[in-house]
Specification:
The chain has one domain: RNA polymerase II/Efflux pump adaptor protein, barrel-sandwich hybrid domain (OB fold (Dihydrolipoamide Acetyltransferase, E2P)). The protein is 0% helix and 55% strand. The protein has no helices and 8 strands. The chain is elongated, with a radius of gyration of 11 Å.
């Protein structure tokens, strides 16, 4: 298995954490939903994977390039 990280592409606030540790995700399933400029932007799984760890909580602020999760494929 290969472990990798998921990073944000925008600056914003974590509106909702939609994935949980151990959850199996398909490519493009949302891990978290960010709110930026009153828009909701999902951060998707880059490939079929299992969530190893979520590093953010609802209400956290993130900046572009922050690691929000560790996944295994």
């Amino acid at each position: 298995m290969s472990r990798s990280t998921v990073k944000t592409e925008i600056t914003g606030k974590v509106w909702k954490v939609t994935a949980t540790k151990g959850q199996r995700l398909a490519e493009d399933d949302p891990i978290v939903i960010l709110e930026s400029m009153k828009m909701e932007i999902p951060v998707p799984a880059p490939l079929d994977c299992t969530v190893v760890e979520i590093l953010v909580a609802e209400g956290d602020s993130v900046t572009e390039g922050d690691v929000i999760a560790h996944i295994e494929s």
